Amino acid sequence: MDLKEQVVLVTGASRGLGAAIAKAFGETGAKVVVNYFMNKEKAEEVVEQIGNERALAIQADVRNLEEVNALFVKARNYFKKPITTIVNNALIDFTFNGELRNKLDSIKWNEFQTQFEGSVKAAFHTLQAGRADMVNQNFGRIINIGTNLVQNPVVPYHDYNTGKAALLGFTRSMAKELGTNGITVNMVSGGLLNKTDASAETPDAVFKLIKEETPLQKATTPEDVADVVLFFASPLSRAVTGQNLVVDGGLVMN
């Protein structure tokens, strides 16, 4: 299915990487569901940039299955066709500032739980809500957003890194189950992004260091990651599933 024919749900799409992904899909002609949790104003700005006829902002806490199911119904009623493509991008209660992160002697289990729910539970809910329609169409594209810190945990974001590692396992497990229904499940793992709301507290010196150590000599942008998400949703990736593609200018090489 061409991108322009798809109905794409992007969770956490009111700001940062999610907004960049939503707008990238909008530029292809796809219909876009701009999911947000709290920031209605920012979500509506993204919709305006895409165009009201091709985008819809829907509030839902992706940790709540009833709200996710209602989102899918609203999207189907608005666009007159079901969601075909899901980008699981929600980030719950987290900012990237290594100096302020709790280490082993101070971190609490509930911090891990928060990230598990924002990563795995949220993706679990969107896949459950969207599976039936995708099976009926014999087509579906799931793209989960990860991090290169799983491969290279240079900053002690223990809760975040562990949640994303679990999401990678979930990605591969779901790819195995859903492949016979024409549904692919992949992950895109960016590096530290220059700059989003989540990385606004990261010192400039960190970006400078990353640039110096990266083969491409640049910090990755949200737009860089969004382009790879488009690849996984497009017909060009039709034979690819269960994969994790790291987008960080070559800082981490698999």
Please render the helix and strand layout as text.
Layout: E1 7-10, H1 16-28, E2 31-36, H2 40-50, E3 55-59, H3 65-79, E4 85-88, H4 109-137, E5 140-147, H5 158-178, E6 183-190, H6 204-213, H7 222-233, E7 244-247
Parallel strand pairs: 1-2, 1-4, 2-3, 4-5, 5-6, 6-7
Helix pairs in contact: 1-2, 1-7, 3-4, 4-5
3D architecture notes:
The chain is of the alpha/beta class and 254 residues long. 44% of the residues lie in helices and 15% in strands. It contains seven helices and seven strands. It has helices spanning 16-28, 40-50, 65-79, 109-137, 158-178, 204-213, 222-233, and strands at residues 7-10, 31-36, 55-59, 85-88, 140-147, 183-190, 244-247. The chain has a seven-stranded parallel β-sheet, with helices on both faces. Helix 1 links the parallel strand 1 and strand 2 (31-36). The radius of gyration is 17 Å and the shape is globular. The two termini are 29 Å apart. The model has no long low-confidence stretch (mean pLDDT 92).
Counting helices, strands and paired strands, the structural category is: alpha/beta
The termini sit apart by 29 Å
Strand content: 15-25%
Strand order across the largest sheet: 3-2-1-4-5-6-7
